[in-house]
Amino acid sequence: MHAHGQNAKVHGSAFLHEALAQLLNELSHGDALQHAARAVELAPQWIAARATLAHASRNFGHLNQAAEQLRHALALTRGGGGDEEAAEELLVELREVAALKEAALARDVGLPALRVAQQLLPEVAPGGDGAGPGIKVWECGSVLAALLVSSPELRGLLRGVTVLELGSGTGISGLAAAHLGAHVWLTDLPDALPHLAANARSNADGVAAAGGAAHVGALDWCRLVKGAGGAGAGGRGVSIDASRVPGCLEGVGGDAGGVGAGAADTTAAGGGGATSSDGGGLQLVLGADLVYSARQARPVARALAALLSAHRASCPFALLAHKSRLRLRGAHEQT
To answer: What gap in Å lies between CA 49 and CA 36, rounded to an integer?
Structure first.
């Protein structure tokens, strides 16, 4: 039985439930989850119970729960409840779970070559949810990506078109479009760009093979207006002329086969054409979960109106995925 170096006093029943969970998990018996969860309930500071619940969760395909329990266990080891060897074992398993989640996400979307990492590791995303919404794939992002892949009409429209994704986060929707041959600008606030650029680089080969392109740049869509006197994308509080987007964006993340290329780079990965360098020719705007509260609806509508109007010569359209978080008269959340 693994104690992970922890000698803290543990409730006697917790030992029994944890031992049963280990045994049942080896037999792939579903009750392993119930006993492991009970052990954690009885002894929430016991690393071994958390690790066993993580193992059972992983074994039965509950990868989010597995990651959550491994993070909790890691936090306990770093709080003086375990040793360095235990922490390393937990970290290795958390990385394995992250890889499994990445593969499962690609299968769910319908693009096996898609690589979208989420920041699951504590040293990458200290504070968990406090690290910002861009560290994980939200439901609307995967739904929108799956729609792009599954719709024959959309697949036919995407090849070679210029796409702007607002609030990209991990980039799942825009990267899916790039895998289908689109020339995509993935945009978000500056703090989200390092992880977004890393995901873009991870998809360089697949995007190149599809004849698409993926570039990463900072853009605050709340500042988009129609005709702002030629203002660029830089400077807080400065309005951005929607007609100059994406041409005015400065790429980040280095040049990885055309993915995440330099400022106003127009070369498509795989030599499949070029994005517009002056902002003209924008044909599709993507957005997933842009609105978290009612007060954000007006800025989103304003930004979309500015983009679609500024690029009307290329007949653009917007494709959004939204999940209502307002509970009215007991109504359930809907996507």
So the answer is: 6
Work out the percent of the chain whose per-residue pLDDT is above 70.
Answer: 76
pLDDT of residue 81: 58
Pull the structure tokens for residue 10.
Answer: 């543990």
DSSP for 153-189, please give it: HHHHHHTT-EEEEES-TT-HHHHHHHHTT-EEEEEE-
Return the beta strands (E) in the chain as ranges.
162-166, 183-188, 213-218, 224-225, 240-241, 282-288, 317-321
> What is the C-alpha separation between 299 and 147, in angstroms, rounded?
25
Give the tokens for residue 325. 């978080």
Strand 162-166 and strand 224-225: pairing? unpaired
| Whether the model pTM is above 0.85 | no
- For 263-278, b where at least 16 C-beta lie within 10 A, e where not — what string? ebbbbbbbebbebbee
Helix (H, G, I), strand (E, B) or coil at 243: helix
Q: Residue 276 in contact with residue 247, Cβ under 8 Å?
A: yes
pLDDT of 4 strictly over 50: no
